[in-house]
Structure formats: structure tokens, C-alpha cells
Specification:
The structure is a single chain. Helix content is about 60%, strand content about 5%. By secondary structure, it is an alpha/beta fold. It has a five-stranded mixed β-sheet. Helix 2 runs antiparallel to helix 13, helix 4 crosses helix 12 and helix 4 runs antiparallel to helix 13. The chain starts with a helix and ends in an 11-residue tail after the last strand.
């Protein structure tokens, strides 16, 4: 409780910013998923309140995710009705809870740092590219779309060019004012003012965006933004109307195989996205706190059960909302929980006011969030670390940009795995020589993947040489590698090469070497320099 009061001054403004970002994203993702619009709002409320309470993450924000839109839209089209889909969401949540008890959260620790940082940079670039059309009033694609191929039959880049030809002047004015305000709010010279310290920049952006559009309506109605360029929240006049928006799963479809296949798919994909997001948000956390991943899977599972039971979309931890939380100064999960309660209150009491918010103002907030994720010095940092870090970083960015988040991450992991194997090749086996004296040393673990390297190094040794094969430091040597060495021992004399092998009697696998002359853990017979 003491810690809560220490961070409340940071978490309350951050919760308002997260609310402003989350509301249109919840609606946009529901639209892109071909689900009832209110199902996105329900998911946002549950993600904030339920998962917020149960999660061990101080900064992660959960809600409906753009990465699940294709799966959700396909499932809704294949299933008899939306109630059958809600049953799949509930079952997916149960499966995620099981994942948590099975300690599957450890999978997130195997994602390379270069891939995680590449994912953050890619999300930032996507936010800038995808939100620019909304900034200038071209709203053909839904707000929150992150995939390269869009539902309006365009892609990220064609949509960008189309927006230049189909801009809306009022949206451009509001978007320009909004970006200017956000930049001013970040200037150190302005941060000393008490008003700027108390009022979040995104809140001022939304307030002025509504004010400017209302001014246009009074002065020049034809110039003002029409409803398709504003937030479109379903209106609940009072609590009974809100209850009327709820839907409930139909358990009679428990024997439907499509329900189960959808549930398993949702559970796996949502869990992967959550683990990746948690890894990324922990890296953005200024205090570098570590989220307990198994607890997170359980929290996400319970959240999906709750969401499915009352008509909400499936949930994951979401990078965009979470990074907005970090940038707004959130310090604890109080900001996540408050944003969920605020979303509920707004839907109940001020939906008409929310429907006056211009999408261009919200796009400016998301663009500024993206700008903060794309850090140019990071490019230089990974370049200086070497190709094994730089290439996976760049490939992850490009793969996410031209596919979607999950596919891009998998491609990045594969590239990272390639460099890891390549590094293992270089460190597990090495050869040095001094004139005609050669040392081939096997270190730690030598897998069958090192077989070609061992074979090529041995066969490259010229005639009339003396070779020591030092296996004493290798804890594991694959039997294929041992076979390669034994074959070399058998024919080396044909090239007048004398071979000795250094091994350990304490390692049973070393007894498989068919040694013509043994050296057992003794110092090398000659001095070898590396050149």
C-alpha cells in the first residue's frame, strides 16, 4: 500500500494516456476481426482490471491484439455463431492456465535480445507508417492494424501513398496541432511549468482536437470532420444498455472440433505474443524489473476465461499500449488497473463525448509513441556489437514490417539461431599450428553439426605433419564426430602424418577413440603459437 501511494501521482496520468490509446485500438481490432465492436471494449476492460490485478508485470497492459485479428476473423467465419467463438476463447484461457502450471513461461527467455530490440523498433516504425494515413484523415484501414497486407486491399506502403492523395484538410490541421503539442510537452524548457507536469500531453491533444473540430462545426460545418473520422463507440444510455451488449458462450458446442482447434491455436499464439511482449516491456522498464512469466500465463488465461464468458475478444499483453504506459510515466500496475476502470466508466457515462474525439489526434499520439520506440542510436549500438547481433536485429525489423508480428519474430529467431550455431562452430573446434606441428582442440560440447568443420580441418593438414587432437576439455562429443576422427586416425599415416590424441579416462565417451598412440591428460609436447 505504501508503494502504491508513492507511485499514484505517476500512474493516474499514465492510466489516462493508456485509456486514450486503448479505446480506439479496441474498437479497431474488433472491426478488423469481424466481431461485434463492443467485444473489443469488453476485452479492454477485462485486460485492464482482471489481468492487471493478477499479473506480476508492473507495466504491461493487456487487451485485444492486432496479431490475433486474422485468427479471430477466420474462426468467426468458420464457427456457427459468435457464441461458439466465445466458448473457444474460454477454452483457450483454460489451456493458458495449464501452460502456466507447466512452467511454459520459460520459452520467452530463449528469444535473443537482438530480436526483442528489433521487435520494439519494428513496432515503432509500423506505428509511424500505419498511423500517418489516419493523421491526415485517410481512414480506410482500421486503427490498430499492424500487418503488412491490409483489409482494404492495400498494404502499408500503398496505403501511405494513397493517404497523400486522399487527405482531409481538417484532419491534417488537427493532426499537425497534436504532434506540435506532443513535441512541446517533451521539451526540457517547458517541463519546468507546473501545468505541463500535471496534465499529460496526450490528454491535451485530445482536448484540443475535440475543441478545434467543434469550432469547425460551428464556423464551417462542411469543413469539419464527419463521424467516419471520429471515434465510434457503441452508446450505452445506462447500465441496462451496457448489459445488453454482453454475449455469452454456448457450451452446447463443446463437441465441435473447430471450437477446440480454434482454442488451441488462440492459446498458443496468445501465449507466445504475451511472452514476447513481456520480454520487450521489461527491457523498456526504467527499473529493469523482471516479470514472472508463468504467473503471467496464468493471469492471461484467467483474463481470457473472463473475457470469453461475457462476450470479449481474446487477450494478450500488447506492446503498443504497454509502451504508451512506459512513455507516459507509469510506475506500477495501478496504471493498468485504473485504465480498465476508466474505460468502463467512460463507456457507461460519457460515450457521446468520446465519440467526438478525432482519429487524427489519436494517430498523433500513436505516431509519437512509435517515434520513442525507434531509437537511431540502437542501430549503431547493434552494428558495433558485430554481425551476429546486427543481422538478426535488422532482419527482425524487416520481417515484422513485411509480414506481421509473430511471423517476423519467428524469422528473427531463426536468423539468431543460425548465428548461434555458427558461433558454436567457431568456439567448439579450433586449430592452430607452428610450422608442421598442429593442435586440433575440441572444447565443451561438440555436436554432429560440427562434423563438417572437424572433417575439413583435419583433412586440410598437409603431409609430413605432427598432429595432436586434444579432446580432454570436451564434455560431450557426438559419435559421428568420433567416427570422423577415428577414420582420420586410420588413414593419416598414408600422408606421413603422425597423430596423437589427448583424452580423459574419466569420460566414458572418450574410450570410443581408436587411438594409435595415447596421451592422457599430459602437457603438450611442444609450444604452439597462434598466427
Amino acid at each position: 500500500m505504501k508503494y502504491l501511494f508513492k507511485t499514484v501521482k505517476n500512474d493516474v496520468p499514465a492510466s489516462i494516456v493508456v485509456l486514450l490509446v486503448a479505446l480506439p485500438l479496441c474498437l479497431g481490432i474488433a472491426l478488423g476481426s469481424k466481431a461485434p465492436l463492443f467485444s473489443g471494449i469488453i476485452a479492454g476492460i477485462v485486460g485492464g482490471i482482471v489481468i492487471g490485478f493478477l499479473s506480476g508485470s508492473p507495466l504491461s497492459v493487456s487487451g485485444p491484439a492486432a496479431g490475433l485479428t486474422v485468427i479471430v476473423a477466420t474462426a468467426i467465419g468458420r464457427l456457427p455463431n459468435f457464441e461458439a467463438f466465445l466458448l473457444a476463447v474460454v477454452l483457450a484461457g483454460i489451456i493458458q492456465v495449464v501452460f502456466g502450471f507447466l512452467k511454459a513461461g520459460v520459452l520467452g527467455d530463449f528469444v535473443p535480445n537482438s530480436v526483442i530490440k528489433g521487435m520494439l523498433a519494428a513496432i515503432g516504425i509500423i506505428l509511424i507508417l500505419k498511423q500517418f494515413p489516419h493523421l491526415v484523415g485517410y481512414d480506410s484501414d482500421y486503427l490498430g492494424d499492424e500487418s503488412f497486407s491490409q483489409v482494404d486491399n492495400e498494404n502499408t506502403f500503398s496505403g501511405l501513398f494513397s493517404s497523400i492523395a486522399h487527405f482531409t484538410p481538417a484532419a491534417m490541421i488537427i493532426g499537425g496541432i497534436s504532434l506540435t503539442i506532443l513535441v512541446i510537452w517533451e521539451w526540457p524548457a517547458f517541463k519546468k511549468f507546473k501545468f505541463i507536469q500535471l496534465v499529460p500531453g496526450p490528454l491535451m491533444v485530445v482536448f484540443l482536437g475535440v475543441l478545434v473540430n467543434e469550432f469547425f462545426k460551428r464556423g464551417e460545418p462542411g469543413f469539419a470532420l464527419q463521424q467516419e473520422h471520429l471515434v465510434s463507440l457503441p452508446v450505452a444510455g445506462h447500465f441496462s444498455d451496457f448489459v445488453g451488449f454482453l454475449s455469452f458462450p454456448d457450451f452446447s458446442y463443446l463437441n465441435n472440433p473447430v471450437v477446440w482447434s480454434t482454442a488451441i491455436t488462440l492459446a498458443i499464439v496468445a501465449s507466445l505474443e504475451t511472452l514476447l511482449s513481456i520480454e520487450a516491456i521489461d527491457k523498456l522498464d526504467p527499473y529493469k524489473r523482471v516479470t514472472p512469466t508463468n504467473r503471467e500465463l496464468k493471469a492471461q488465461g484467467i483474463g481470457n476465461i473472463a473475457s470469453g464468458l461475457i462476450g470479449g475478444l481474446p487477450l494478450t499483453s500488447v506492446i503498443v499500449r504497454s509502451s504508451a504506459n512506459v512513455n507516459a510515466g507509469g510506475r506500477s500496475k495501478l496504471s493498468t488497473i485504473l485504465h480498465g476502470f476508466l474505460m468502463l466508466l467512460c463507456v457507461l457515462f460519457i460515450p457521446i463525448l468520446l465519440n467526438k474525439i478525432p482519429l487524427s489526434a489519436l494517430a498523433a499520439i500513436l505516431i509519437f509513441t512509435g517515434y520513442k520506440l525507434v531509437k537511431i542510436p540502437m542501430l549503431k549500438e547493434f552494428y558495433q556489437k558485430g554481425w551476429d547481433q546486427f543481422v538478426p536485429f535488422i532482419v527482425t525489423i524487416l520481417a515484422i514490417l513485411f509480414t506481421d508480428l509473430l511471423v517476423g519474430i519467428l524469422i528473427g529467431i531463426l536468423v539468431g539461431l543460425f548465428y548461434m550455431i555458427r558461433s558454436n562452430f567457431q568456439t567448439s573446434v579450433f586449430m592452430i599450428n607452428d610450422n608442421a606441428n598442429y593442435l586440433v582442440r575440441l572444447r565443451k560440447d561438440v555436436s554432429f553439426l560440427n562434423k563438417p568443420l572437424v572433417k575439413s580441418k583435419l583433412e586440410s593438414i598437409p603431409e609430413n605433419s605432427f598432429v595432436i587432437i586434444d579432446a580432454s576439455r570436451a564434455d560431450f562429443i557426438d559419435k559421428d564426430v568420433i567416427e570422423v576422427i577415428n577414420e582420420y586416425l586410420a588413414h593419416a599415416h598414408l600422408k606421413n602424418i603422425k597423430v596423437e590424441i589427448k583424452k580423459s579416462l574419466h569420460k566414458p565417451m572418450h574410450l570410443l577413440f581408436k587411438v594409435p598412440g595415447e596421451v592422457l591428460e599430459t602437457p603438450l609436447a611442444f609450444s604452439i603459437s597462434n598466427h
